[in-house]
Amino acid sequence: MKYSPQDIIIGFFKTALLLICLEIFTSAFLPAVGITNFKPAFNVLIILFLAFKLDVPFLPFLILLFQFIHSAFSIEGWASGTFAGILIALSVRYVKDMLNFSTPISTIIVVQIFQLAWFILVAVILSLKLGDFSNFIFIFMKYVPESIFLSVISHHFFMLLDNFWQVNRKTSGATI
User: Fold this and answer.
1) Are 166 and 11 in contact (CB under 8 A)?
2) What residues contact residue 1 under an 8 Å CB cut-off, 6+ apart?
3) How would you class 175 by CB atoms within 10 Å of its CB: exposed for 0-12, middle for 13-18, buried for 19 or more?
4) pLDDT band at 170; cut points 50, 70, 90
5) DSSP states of the chain as a string?
6) Which of 30, 81, 169, 174 would staple 35 via disulfide (CB 3.0–4.6 Å)?
7) What digits encode the pLDDT tens for the residues 42-82?
């Protein structure tokens, strides 16, 4: 797939605007209505989409930019998220040809597997930073309900991002 600089810029800005709106919703609106312990990491879903569907040499830079946008709304470290995102994107690259997103169920399962890998990696990084692995399970389990929610909506979310990045136009009918 070849993307022009204009395609990348337009796709990036549409996705960044969506991420900002979702971050405002999850960090301002949900707590305002009393939902304080549920903050889905839409940045992870966006980065998984980019890893699954975009084959560009500057993918790590895009991951960094989206993690940086996410960091404006979160106390989580953008550096550890970027590191985890790049490692997950590299692992996706090895299995990308075996993945099929033609059905909602296959998308949900694949996204859940990679989200769990992401959150295990983040939990390991946080535990290493703290120098204590006694909270590893607690840190990891905090993400599980949110990851299930994100996996359930992933098929429709990916369809929206397909339009932003014009993936179907670029693949000319190939199954992604």
Assistant:
1) yes
2) 54, 55, 167, 170, 171
3) exposed
4) low
5) ----HHHHHHHHHHHHHHHHHHHHIIIIIHHHTT--S----HHHHHHHHHHHH---TTHHHHHHHHHHHHHTT-SS-HHHHHHHHHHHHHHHHHHGGG---SSHHHHHHHHHHHHHHHHHHHHHHHHHHHT--TTHHHHHHHHHHHHHHHHHHHHHHHHHHHHHHTHHHHHTT---
6) 30
7) 999 999 999 998 888 999 999 999 999 999 988 776 788 89
For residues 12 and 174, give the distance between their C-alpha atoms in angstroms, rounded to a whole number. Answer: 23
CB atoms within 10 A of CB 131: 6
CA distance 165 to 151: 20
How far is the C-alpha of 103 from the C-alpha of 95, rounded, in Å?
18
The pLDDT score that the predictor gives to residue 25 is 95
Structure token digits, residue 69: 């946008």
53, amino acid identity? K
pLDDT digits (tens, 9 = 90+) for 97-111: 787 777 899 999 999
Both structure tokens of 99:
């993945």
Q: Which amino acid is at 79?
A: A
Question: Are residues 66 and 47 in contact, defined by beta-carbon separation less than 8 angstroms?
Answer: yes
